[in-house]
Amino acid sequence: MRRSRDVPMLVDRARAGDPRAVARLITLVESGDELLPQVAAALAPYTGRAQVIGLTGSPGVGKSTTTNELVRALRARDHRVGVLAVDPSSPFTGGAILGDRVRMQDHATDPGVYIRSMSSRGHLGGLAAATPQAVRVLEGAGCDVVLVETVGVGQAEVEVASLADTTLVLLAPGMGDAIQAVKAGILEIADVFVVNKADRDGADATVRDINGMIALGERGPGQWRPRVVRAVAARGEGIDELVTAVEKHHGWLVEHGELRRRREARAAAEVEAIALGTLRDRMGSLRAGTPLAALAARVADGSLDPYAAARELLDQLDLSDG
Amino acid sequence: MRRSRDVPMLVDRARAGDPRAVARLITLVESGDELLPQVAAALAPYTGRAQVIGLTGSPGVGKSTTTNELVRALRARDHRVGVLAVDPSSPFTGGAILGDRVRMQDHATDPGVYIRSMSSRGHLGGLAAATPQAVRVLEGAGCDVVLVETVGVGQAEVEVASLADTTLVLLAPGMGDAIQAVKAGILEIADVFVVNKADRDGADATVRDINGMIALGERGPGQWRPRVVRAVAARGEGIDELVTAVEKHHGWLVEHGELRRRREARAAAEVEAIALGTLRDRMGSLRAGTPLAALAARVADGSLDPYAAARELLDQLDLSDG
Question: Which residues does the UniProt record annotate as the domain AAA+ ATPase (chains A, B) (predicted)?
């Protein structure tokens, strides 16, 4: 009861700029706390306005350095910036304090920047479920730009990246990333390609490869053609060009009604995932005595087929408020 | 109506050993045909008895060759064998005729062997949903051993492998597979490791690496300790040892009540996935006019939070038979 009453106060403090309140709310979100629906309800009025930028790429392409420089450039344009560094494979909980990454120390004392690492540990729906809520916390805290940085390997990361308005895919010369990108379907999610470490051998070839892939890609007349930006993030080079590309894409999204469309599609996916998660919980696990366990035993011995079992399970499902 | 009446006849023909009927049933399964529940119902009485062996590994480790040799060895022991070669990344539909892989031509004329490639194309729930049904078709057709061969990369493949009673993980010397295996969580699913191409340089090191990982793995006193088998599948070497290891593991599963437990857990996951798929269908997509679309629009503009939206969606959900 007491904790439940804390939520509106915590949201008020986060809105007033208290970094500890922001940290506390993200921890609640990340751990899939039972207060999550209340947190979401308290935050809703302050959400839906921030620009969400996804940034993904293989290990070693310079994601953190690029994020760091992007934050600097966005701050110089007077944006309040939130950063979620999402690592699905991290064994660490994300419960560290704000500014928990050494490389982000440049911004540790800047009250206009919130930085947070997240891992999927503890959250039932995984990062795909937790990340949109964490974005809402940062929006509630007044961030008008939220950067979501993920390792670009695998389905979960693609899902996380898909919550962005604009997705940046980082590559580096000579890493075979271009081929990897196609394989992983990353080409389809990239709005802007960043060839980082562009002072290295092979940068021209990488840019050429990407441009070739873009040229081959099928696009309708009204569709966005991905931009390619060269950067040397470690020296701050190309970052202004990157910000310009992001702004161009944002303008295009607004102009074509695509921003609204993407956000509604994302909201629909999120609502559906929460609803399915609720239903899954109600279906119960394999613990003895649950309807699912009894049905599974009959399917395993061949006395019932799985479709008939699923129908029986749905018939027994209580949809009244749990 | 007419097609619906065909199902029992098709199952009868498959049970009588008609390979075209088996192929037709797997195509129905793979395409997520609306007749699927009827197919599953007709097959149920004949399922739950076959031994399911999963075989996974990176491209180039020799999965097809090993499968081919395993089939030969199992045939020599008078088993009827089904093979499902599952490739989640394949752009081809699996609608090819039985014995569609050149490398499997050895068994093309053997009526005791069914071989089938599958892809996830067309099936809503993906391979994780289609594969258990395809295993049932092969069981129904009289196979007492079903080999499921998958490329060991990514979550989908781990899920597919998880439907096996016994999972074989293939590695080859000098491919960095050992490290990859740990990363992908494949160590946790392996009951038997096969170091194929064991005549090559680095085979000893690979065996040592795996044994080291096994030694470090946490196991309770009653748990199975993964076996390591060396093989040169291209020359048929090590295959008898592999069959022996598989038989040992099967005996261990039976002895410890683990076979029953695994199969019930799998059946539960399958029933749950079908039930959730049904519910997802009923929730509707983002097409204008559906409840989900209306709720998503309110979430996107911040006038409703996603948890409240999910509750409203569930309240509107019709669970009566669709």
Answer: 49-193
Q: Which of B127, B272, B276, B292 to mutate to test the interface with A (most CBs of A within 10 A)?
A: B272
Among the listed ranges A14-28, A262-276, B43-57, B65-79, which one has the minimum average pLDDT value? A262-276
For the sheet with A166-171, list strands across it: A113-118, A81-86, A145-151, A51-57, A166-171, A192-195, A227-230
Q: How many CB pairs under 8 A join A and B?
A: 184
Contacts of A199 (CB under 8 A, 6+ apart): A232
Contacts of A36 (CB under 8 A, 6+ apart): A28, A29, A133, B307
Supply the CATH number for residue B145's domain. Answer: 3.40.50.300
- Predicted local confidence at residue A153, as pLDDT: 54
Assess A257–B contact: CB distance below 8 Å, yes or no. no
Q: What is the pLDDT of residue B181?
A: 55
Search chain B and give the residue with CA nearest A321.
Answer: B311
Q: Decide which of A211, A233, A259 is a domain's last residue.
A: A259
How far apart, in whole angstroms, are the C-alpha atoms of residue B51 and residue B81? 10
Domain total of chain B: 1
Residue A198 has pLDDT above 90, yes or no: yes
ipTM: 0.78
Domain holding A290, by residue range, is 271-316
Tell me which residues of chain B, numbers 57 to 86, contact chain A at a CB-CB cutoff of 8 Å.
none
Largest Cα–Cα distance of chain A, in whole Å? 68
pLDDT at res. A159: 65
A304 part of contact set with chain B, CB < 8 Å? yes
- Chain A nearest C-alpha distance from B13 (Å): 20
Residue B266 contacts A, CB cutoff 8 Å = yes
Distances (CA, A) of B243 to A5, A39, B72, B186: 62, 55, 11, 20
Q: How far apart are CA A80 and CA A93, in angstroms?
A: 25
Do A104 and A72 touch, CB atoms closer than 8 A?
no
Best residue in B305, B314, B319 for a mutation probing chain A (most A CBs within 10 Å):
B305
Q: Are residues A64 and A209 in the same domain?
A: yes
Low-confidence ranges of chain B (pLDDT < 70): 1-4, 87-106, 108, 119-128, 152-161, 175-187, 284-289, 318-322
Interface contact flag, B45 A302, Cβ < 8 Å? yes
In B130-159, the residues whose Cβ lies within 8 Å of chain A are: 132-133, 154-156
Asked whether residue B139 is domain-assigned, the answer is yes
**What percent of chain A lies above the pLDDT cut of 90?**
39
In whole angstroms, give the CA distance from residue A214 to residue A204: 15
Nearest-neighbour CA in chain A from B261: distance (Å): 9
Residues of A in contact with B58 (CB under 8 A): none
